[in-house]
Amino acid sequence: MCDEFTSRSDEANLxxxxxxxxxxxxxxxxxxxxxxxxxxxxxxxxxxxxxxxVEISTQDGIADAFFVHPATGQHAAVIMWPDVAGLRESxxxxxxxxxxxxxxxxxxxxxxxxxxxxxxxxxxDWRTPEGKAKIAPLRQQLDPEAITxxxxxxxxxxxxxxxxxxxxxIGSCGYCMGGSFTVRTAAAAPGxxxxxxxxxxxxxxxDAPDSPHRLLSKTEASxxxxxxxxxxxxxxxxxxxxxxxxDAADRPAEIEVYPADHGWCVPDxxxxxxxxxxxxxxxxxxxxxxx
Length: 291
Hints:
Layout: H1 4-7, H2 10-16, H3 21-26, H4 29-34, H5 38-42, E1 49-58, E2 61-70, E3 77-81, H6 89-99, E4 104-108, H7 123-126, H8 129-140, H9 144-159, E5 170-175, H10 177-188, E6 193-199, E7 222-228, H11 229-234, H12 237-249, E8 253-258, H13 274-289
Parallel strand pairs: 3-4, 3-5, 5-6, 6-7, 7-8
Antiparallel strand pairs: 1-2, 2-4
């Protein structure tokens, strides 16, 4: 997860990118994203897109989300769970990249119980005392039951959308804290969610009775678990537990430790790694291509 352990790797990653922590924090969202290549952010897709902010009724209130899809036709849907910094411009950029490849992408505000997005403008804002104070109480509300309720509401929303192909399965992808949410999404709606991708996800294999890896048998999905090298250094047994659980559940699962640190897929993260992010994106396209 994005905690003090991963923050210790920020200095090295920022140095690799030619930035100090102060310079990185001073970057606005557009400036942070400007350093990332079009190819790594957009893939090879060229679809004309339609996008909007939508409101979704859940058992706990009204969730706001960013919905983007090709302008014409019906497409397999994907639920995107943001990292700890929440729904912001970098997540919209990532969603557009996936939508351009032919998907209807719903990026959710997991903190909707507190306020509409964005709570923070960039990942750097979360590293500040003010950012952490804003996120902490909302993060505590995201227990497994809340995520499961929300996931079902998001699936229902997509199944009512005219641009979603209901004859195809739904995918889910998540980053950092959102990585484990993808598994809970697959377990919440096993008849609809057929693929889930976790990128530098946290809390995937724990001792808890409802640990995400114990839920694989309750799903009908294929999985991609892309693990950060520093997360693997801290918990090398997590990938073993994931493999054993996937095999026991007879669920297809690609599990790989990437040569990049926690946060490498997110363009406004200190750990952004263009080469590794591009590879992870391509592996996700393969996974979702089978929806």
